[in-house]
Amino acid sequence: MGEAILWGAVASAPLLVGAVLAMLRTWPQRLLGIVLGFGAGALMASIAFELWEEGLDLGGPIPLVIGVAAGALTYYVADRIVERRASGQKGAGGPLAVGALLDGIPEQLVLGIGLASGEGVSVALVIAIVVSNLPESIGSAADLLDGGMKRARVFWLWAGVAAVCALATVAGAALADAVGPDFRAGASGFAAGALLVMLVDSMVPDAQSKAKESTGLATVLGFALAAGLSLAS
């Protein structure tokens, strides 16, 4: 259980670190767009080379596809609720925070299950998580601050997201003996589905509006780095 707590904290810490970085200074909009584009590419690689492949290997296509549909619908509904409650607020900060939560919980749940099952955690995998989580939280926190949210509220929002994701690793370790490969495949699919909708609806459009023609290049670089790290692990 101690190992699950440690790796849960390591995997979720970039979410809070990114929010703190956004609060330390005002970042140029173009730079934020490039950071968001880079993070979007890293998340695409995470979907393709980690969540999707792992889900197929664990439970096959049926639980994986069911998980993808459930994750996509859950994010869509949650995002609509966030939009109604934050009507008039510019940027994609709220949707990105929702996406981080809906991605982080099942992803770190699977991480905890794997740890309890005796699977190791490679340094490359941890770096890949940082590469995707850090830009996501920087971009979201910056958008939330730009939209008028108080610094303390932004900090506690992302602290809460990071804490819930870390606890999901501990929960996964506790559930390891009670769940099978189909559940893990569905959890991977859920994270992938939530991420795909968030990327198309919020993260990529927000990056494009800020970085313009640099978005595509930043996205490809983020994808290449994260894909290489995933394959190396």
Hey, roughly how much beta strand do the residues contain?
under 5%
Q: Kindly report the average pLDDT value.
A: 82
Give the structural class. mainly alpha
Give the SSE string.
HHHHHHHH
Taking pLDDT < 50 over at least 5 consecutive residues as the criterion, the unreliable ranges are none
Amount of helix: over 70%
Distance from N terminus to C terminus (CA atoms, Å) equals: 23 Å
State the major sheet: none
Shape: globular
> What is the overall number of helices?
8
Secondary structure tally: strands: 0
What does this structure look like?
It is a single chain. This protein is 86% helix and 0% strand. With 233 residues, it is mostly helical. The longest helix is centred in the N-terminal third of the chain and has 31 residues, at 29-59. The radius of gyration is 17 Å and the shape is globular.
Keywords:
single chain, 233 residues, mainly alpha, 8 helices
